[in-house]
Structures are given as C-alpha cells and as structure tokens.
Specification:
Elements lengths: L1 H60 L6 E4 L4 E6 L7 E13 L5 E3 L2 E7 L2 E8 L2 E3 L3 E13 L4 H12 L3 E16 L3 E16 L4 E7 L1
Antiparallel strand pairs: 1-3, 2-3, 3-8, 4-7, 4-9, 5-6, 5-9, 9-10, 10-11
The site of one 2-acetamido-2-deoxy-beta-D-glucopyranose (NAG) has 3 residues, from strand 10.
C-alpha cells in the first residue's frame, strides 16, 4: 500500500521536480549568459572608448603645431617715393602682425622682431614684445612701422629706380622668428619656432599695398 502510494505519485513528483529543476537551471544559465554578454559588451565598449579617447588625445590634442606668424593687409599712413634719378621711398603704416595659434593650449613667446627688406637690404624693423597667443586663437600685434630706403647699395638703388620708373611696383619682404613654448593640458610643453616670410607688393603709382603673401 505504501509502495503503491509511493509509486502512484512519486513519478509525478519526480517529474515535477525534474522539470522545474531543469527550467530553473536553464533560467539561471540563460541569465548568466546574458550577464556575461552584457559584461563583454560593456568591456569592449569601454576599451573602444579608451582607444578612441587615447587616439584623440595623441592625434589631436598632443599634436603640437607651429603657430603661424605673419603680416596681414594694411594701408599706408604716409608714403613718399623717389624717382629713377634719385631712387628712395619712405613708408609709414601700422603693421598688423598676427600670431595664429591652432594648438590646444597657449603659445608663450619671447621678445623678437620683424625686419623688412628690399632686395635683401634692410629698410625697417619693428620690435615685438614678449607675449602669449591663447589656446586656438590669433594674437593681434599692431606696431607702428616706418620703412625708409636711403643709402641703398648701388645695384639695389638701380633696381629701385627702374621699378619706380617702369613697373611702378616694388616688392618688399618681411622676415621674423618667434620662439616660444606651447603648453597643452597645463603640463605638456614643447618648444616651437614660427617663422615669418611674407612678400608685399606695393603699387608706387597708386601709393598703396597691392598684395601680401606669406609662406
Ligand atoms: C610723410 O613722410 C614724409 C617723408 O618721410 C615727411 O616729410 C612728412 O612729414 C610725413 N607726413 C606725415 C603727415 O607724417
Ligand atoms: C631680432 O630678433 C632675433 C630673434 O628672433 C634676435 O636674435 C635679434 O637679436 C633681434 N635683433 C634685434 C636688433 O633686436
Ligand atoms: C603709433 O602711431 C600713432 C600715430 O600715428 C600714435 O598715436 C601711437 O601712439 C603710436 N603707437 C606706438 C606704439 O608708438
Ligand atoms: C620666402 O618665401 C619665398 C617665396 O614666397 C621663397 O622664395 C624664399 O626662399 C623664402 N625665404 C625663406 C628664408 O624661407
């Protein structure tokens, strides 16, 4: 009787037991797999994020670039030109000097100067005080400049005389060098030198600047 009773509902109970046991085991395994998947995806996402961040840091932020140092367009406040027989010029203007800093940090530079030349002969100079071009910005330095060509070497004098007579265009150059440090994230520093090399064409007939090109 006892046996029969046991036989009667043991299988059911066993079956029931087995079923729920297997189901719950499957559920647990499924949940574990999902959790593992989530972790894996999370870790991969984190690694990708770190790599992207690192690449951005190295390729963009830590890319130290030389600031651009140049003269932009200006107008003369005074200009006089000589003749072929007595070649000379005297020019006065406010020189718009620009230091364009594209770095992700400021560029601090020491005192320097820009020299203006005609056919290799210096005709003027402006002195640049030490300063700073901020993070991703252009520092504007406006300096009074006076350029005078007098007592030129003979060949240069002849060239100037011919230019004044014929083309009525004279070409001046400006050169300079700024030496300074770029600081990124307040601690990464690198010395950078930016060189100016500009060519200015001046129309001596109209007494105005025709163009400025910097390389
Ligand atoms: C312009 O320059 C000439 C020659 O350098 C000078 O004699 C004259 O006084 C200047 N004019 C002005 C308004 O500065
Ligand atoms: C002009 O600046 C350079 C550095 O860029 C310096 O070596 C030179 O002595 C300066 N010249 C004058 C006359 O200040
Ligand atoms: C530049 O020249 C102007 C007059 O043309 C004068 O008012 C100004 O003070 C000068 N600036 C410097 C820095 O010498
Ligand atoms: C300045 O630029 C001109 C071309 O615009 C070039 O011929 C000359 O060699 C350059 N000078 C320096 C010192 O780089």
């Amino acid at each position: 009787m006892a046996d029969k009773n046991q036989n009667q509902y043991h299988p059911a109970e066993v079956n029931g037991y087995h079923r729920s046991d297997r189901e719950s085991l499957e559920d647990v395994e499924e949940a574990r797999r999902k959790k593992k998947m989530k972790w894996t995806i999370g870790i991969i996402a984190f690694v990708i994020f770190q790599v992207v961040q690192g690449l951005f840091f190295v390729l963009v932020i830590m890319k130290f670039k030389s600031p651009k140092f140049r003269v932009t367009e200006f107008e003369f406040t005074n200009s006089t030109f000589g003749t072929q027989a007595s070649p000379s010029f005297a020019l006065a203007f406010v020189a718009p000097i620009r230091v364009k800093n594209t770095n992700w940090g400021p560029f601090k530079y020491g005192a320097s100067n820009v020299t203006f030349t005609y056919q290799g002969t210096q005709v003027g100079r402006v002195d640049i005080p030490k300063g700073k071009a901020n993070f991703k910005s252009t520092k504007k330095i406006n300096l009074n400049a006076t350029l005078t060509a007098a007592n030129l070497p003979n060949t240069v004098s002849t060239t100037l005389g011919n230019a004044l007579q014929n083309s009525q265009v004279i070409t001046l150059n400006s050169q300079g060098e700024l030496k300074g440090k770029v600081t990124v994230m307040f601690m990464f520093k690198k010395t950078k030198i930016s060189k100016m090399n500009c060519t200015m064409a001046i129309d001596t007939g109209k007494k105005e600047l025709q163009s400025v090109r910097c390389s």
